[in-house]
Amino acid sequence: MRDINLFNIQLMDVELILNIAKYGSFTKAGEKMFMTQSVVSKRINQIENELGLTLFIRDKRKVILTPAGRVLSRRFKNISDDILDAIQEAHIAQTGASGSLSVGFLEWANPVFINCLQNFIRENPQFSVSIFRKRFSELRSDVIQGNMDIIFTTSYDCTQFSDKEFDYANVSKIPLMAYMSRQNPLSSCPELSINDLRKEPMLMVNPRSSSGYGEYVKQLFARYGIKPIISQYANDGGEHIGNLLINKGILLASANFLDQTLTDPIARIPVTDEHVYVTAVWRKDNINLVLMKFLTELLEEVDPEKIR
To answer: What is the pTM of this model?
Structure first.
C-alpha cells in the first residue's frame, strides 16, 4: 500500500465526496458546498491522485461511484456521523444541555433547597431530576457509593466525610429547638439554655445512624460542664415522635423538624444562641455537569458558608 499523507485530506473533502455520492453530480455537490463545478472537479482529481484511487466515473449526464468510491463513501459516512455525534456531545458537555440529577434529603431539609430545585427544573426541562427522602445513614451511603449526586443533611452529620473526597457547604442556618411534650413543665418557657436541660432525659439518635448527632449534643452539654441524661435512642428524630407524645424525654432538633405539625401535643422551644446547618454534600470526583450547573445556581441563591 502506498504512503498517504492524511494532512492533505481535509474534513471538507469527506463532505464533498459524500455529497457527490448523494447527488450523483459535481455541479449539485458544488452548489451544496458553495463551490463551482470546476473547483469540485479539480479537488476530486487531487484527492484521487493523493489516495491512488479512482472514486468516480464521469460522463455527461451523471457521476457514478466506482467500487473503491462506494467503499470510501460508506466508511466516510460513518466517520461523518461520528464527528457530528462527537461535536454534539461536546456541546452538551459545555452547556449541560442534557443529563440527570439525583438528590437525597432529610425531611427537615426540604424547605431550604426545594424552591431552588423547583426553579432549576423549571428553567432546565431537559434534565431528569430524581429526589429521595432518606435517613442519615442511607444518605451517607448513597453519596459515598455514588448513588446520589448530592445530599442535604446536617452539619453535625458531616464528620464522616473526608475532605479529600467530598465538598460540602452550609446552605442554611437553622435555629436549634428543644422538642417536648406539653406535659413537661419546661414547655411553657419562651426559650431554654442547654443548662436548663441538665436534669432532663434526652432522646438521642443512634450512633450507627448518625455518630455526629451524639457528639454534637455532648459538646453542647460539655460547655456547661455537664453530660446529657440519655433516655432512649432511635434511628432518627421521626422515630421519637411517639416518645415525645408520652413525655419520655426531650429531643434537640432543628426548627424545621416537624415543621409546625403536632404543635398541640408537642412543644418546640428555642434553645438560646444555638443552631445547626442544612448542609449540601457531593463527591469531588463527580463529573456530572448537571450537578455542576445545579450547584452554581444553589450556591448563588443561598450564599453558603463553608463548613471547613
So the answer is: 0.63
